Amino acid sequence: MASPQDRRWLAAAARLAGRARPLSRPNPAVGALVVKDDIVLGRGWTAAGGRPHAEAAALAQAGDAARGADIYATLEPCAHDSARGPSCSDLLAKARPARVIIGCGDPDPRTNGKGIARLQDAGVEVMVVDCPSSHRSLEGFLMRETRGRPFVTLKLALSLDGCIAMANGESQWITGPEARAHAHVLRSRQDAILVGGGTLRDDNPTLNVRLPGLEDRSPERWVLTGGDVPDGWRKLADPADLSPLVPAQYLMIEGGASAAAAFLRADHVDRLVIYRAPIVIGGGRPGITDIGLGSLPDAHGRWARSDSRMLGKDALEIYERIPCSLAS
Amino acid sequence: MASPQDRRWLAAAARLAGRARPLSRPNPAVGALVVKDDIVLGRGWTAAGGRPHAEAAALAQAGDAARGADIYATLEPCAHDSARGPSCSDLLAKARPARVIIGCGDPDPRTNGKGIARLQDAGVEVMVVDCPSSHRSLEGFLMRETRGRPFVTLKLALSLDGCIAMANGESQWITGPEARAHAHVLRSRQDAILVGGGTLRDDNPTLNVRLPGLEDRSPERWVLTGGDVPDGWRKLADPADLSPLVPAQYLMIEGGASAAAAFLRADHVDRLVIYRAPIVIGGGRPGITDIGLGSLPDAHGRWARSDSRMLGKDALEIYERIPCSLAS
Prior knowledge:
Strand order of the largest sheet of chain A: 10-9-8-11-6-12-15-14
Function (chains A, B): Converts 2,5-diamino-6-(ribosylamino)-4(3h)-pyrimidinone 5'-phosphate into 5-amino-6-(ribosylamino)-2,4(1h,3h)-pyrimidinedione 5'-phosphate.
EC number (chains A, B): 3.5.4.26, 1.1.1.193
Oligomer: homodimer
Keywords (chains A, B): Hydrolase, Metal-binding, Multifunctional enzyme, NADP, Oxidoreductase, Riboflavin biosynthesis, Zinc
Binding site for Zn(2+) (chains A, B): 53, 78, 88
Binding site for NADP(+) (chains A, B): 157, 173, 199, 256-262
Number of domains of chain A: 2
Shape of chain A: elongated
């Protein structure tokens, strides 16, 4: 059984994993800790481009001290050798830790259980914990591996009455500088971002990351259209088929109202991130057009608030898609 | 100078004042405490119909012990005798307290400073504290006395995308039972409620209070229309002129989208109470139609969030109109 302290170390490793995102792509963003007697001897996260892996980085930091230690990894250590180095399960077995505690099994068929088996064959005690922080830190990877599409965030900057612009189209600005900076950080963590064809034509948005030091984090730019797209953009024809986006793990929909509606209609939105400005527009342009809702009861049981806080004068509201199996 | 403890007692008196609302009407809902050596000797709030006043009730409870005590009152004690009893300032002077601490001056010309003067003439020390809790507990009274209209709350039950119904009009239910019960409590504290003519025709709402034990708290029902109104309803022709509502201290706008917009356009909304359901409707009926906004910057600096909390699965968001003098 994993102890509460084991769970805390896994949560800490998941926090570290956040540093790997998004530059670890196309590899998952993993975090690892080497711990002995409650002292951290090594910390690692997946490096840019995917190598070294988190476990290799943490082991390199710990050196011989890893022997007899506990090793926490957010994802099952890989079982496949690569031209770029040995598998993590072999590396870990060689380090002879007391235990390896894993936050989430790896659905990648090259590993899926084989990493655990290899460690156990080498006489290492392995525990797999169903760790919510690890799962959350891997949500893009898990979505891609299990459903063949990225994890989709729909970002909306809305007035209190749900508008993204005045009726005449005036839309700058709905939200304040704090919310806009937050949205840029969010963008910098995506692999891909998408706008609708109309938004691309009308606004010609740059959609790059303009935060100092993060300029190189600008995601791939996609547009939802059946037609031609300008240089520097890629095209998605159908929000019901997101496979063209693979290997992207994280996609954010940046507007407009029709693109948002198209993804909601396809039930391909996993998270709503709403920046709610303290303004009333009144009769403005709605942030979401028709999503094909059949009746009002069908709208319920789909979204649950997971976070909210103030960003300057605006409120940030985050909602998660309730898995069908949990919906009331 | 008022001490922090004085301010705490005033806040407690303001809390008591809440019990007077709405049945004290047309009188203000006042709270009073008699305190000696940090022990409460008397508590009072304005009775149904307005008499006895809060101070009289608190003094009656304290009896002779009020001599030398501190008396906290949220509003300046009245200076006018009435067929229903002597003025509170005379009653207080006779009780010979050490001090009377007042949370808010009374703008009613029959009292306005005269209550304080009468106490001081009788040798009682008087302190007037600018107490935010007292002011807030009297916001309807102060609005009526200083601006000749009630304090106006606009209540909205909205989807995440700002809709009050599907495009086909289906609107039951947007919010859950907790939010609807909260709205009934809010309604029970109003003197008047109003709907637009279209809402009255289409929905024929009862708009009464259906909470057990509060059935007698149903407010006066008003409809915004230039035409005829059914029995049991009163009519307001112009949201720019709310004087027909006086002596009501508190008015709540209950819908629909056009009535909400009309009051916002007239700048006659003091508070927004938004019940935000965790649902997306998409292309539904907006909660607020055109408010005559000239440009987007004009929408800013008007509303500030004062409270938010969860009510079941819904979020309650409360916004206050920022006084023009404070707007950035």
